[in-house]
Amino acid sequence: MYVRSKTAPVWVLGLVxxxxxxxxxxxxxxxxxxxxxxxxxxxxxxxxAERTVLSPGAIELTVRNTGPDPVQVAQVFVNDAxxxxxxxxxxxxxxxTATLRLDYPWQDGQPYVIALLTSSGAVIEHEIPAAxxxxxxxxxxxxxxxxxxxxxxxxxxxxxxxxxxLLRRAGGGVVRVLxxxxxxxxAYLVVDGTAEGVELAEGTGGAFGGAALVVFGAALAFLLLTxxxxxxxxxxxxxxxxQARAGWRLALMIAVGIGLHNLGEGLAIGAAYAVGExxxxxxxxxxxxxxxxxxxxxxxxxxxxxRPSVPRLLALGLVAGAPAILGALLxxxxxxxxxxxxxxxxxxxxxxxxxxxxxPSLRERAGxxxxxxxxxxxxxxxxxxxxxxxxxxx
Length: 394
Fold this sequence. Notes:
This protein is of the alpha+beta class and 394 residues long.
């Protein structure tokens, strides 16, 4: 007689393993620390300035404790002059924040060095390269950010998409070279976004991972978009419209990747505006228009064999360009370096996923290598983005 063996489901075994692991770690945390000798030497005190708000006659400095020990701010100096300070009366615990309000008659455009003297005698400095009043949120503020995002995001992308009729007349070989140029454009954005994200992360003090935030954001976006792409591929498509839908899907993924990059670009613009480091003017608008117009060309490259409707093209342009408006608003209003680094990483991961999708289309035959035209197109795309990037004086 056959007797069916009864075994616990896999999820039960997994839950038991997790509980056992948690119990072991908790015991190690409670008992292991007692077996170690007490640490000798002075406390390790680290503070990172996360936000500076300048108003008439006052400077508000938000700091975060990025070290292992509590930090007590005893005195504050601005340009070697003692100033009255309000706030942070209690020690700042690990990863906690505190806002210090300094009574100081700062002057517009002047540099300042803020020195925080802790109770143990350590000195932690924060530099303000050029003092400028922090803009307050209001109708005018949001209008300026929306206008900036439109100028540097939506309009340039739509201008680039207007090249679709010209690209449609090109042959298959030319389209393949154009896709190679698109890969070069996107590869440049990957390098540019990574460099900006790492630079931002280095100034955060590493409280939430530092440069690891960029890597985490990139990995998360790559895996998420890969899952979405697999889901879209798995949907049933009519045989006659399969190629057209594949082109539309690729164009949409390119627009999403570029949109996430423009979100990070808007963050940088908004943050620079908030601290007075953004040169608003014709040079900035023209520079970003030249730089981002090529992104519009990249979006419509997979659509050369079809005639998409104007609303669909506008939708692609908004997907790619509108995130610059949101980024500018977040960058100016929140001005959080950790958030900016993470979102720049998200843009990097999204673009890498798009590159992975395009590369197979550059080969003349399946399984073959890239020919000289494709390699030249990739190099040309990188060069175009580098040269047009020189025109952006933000």
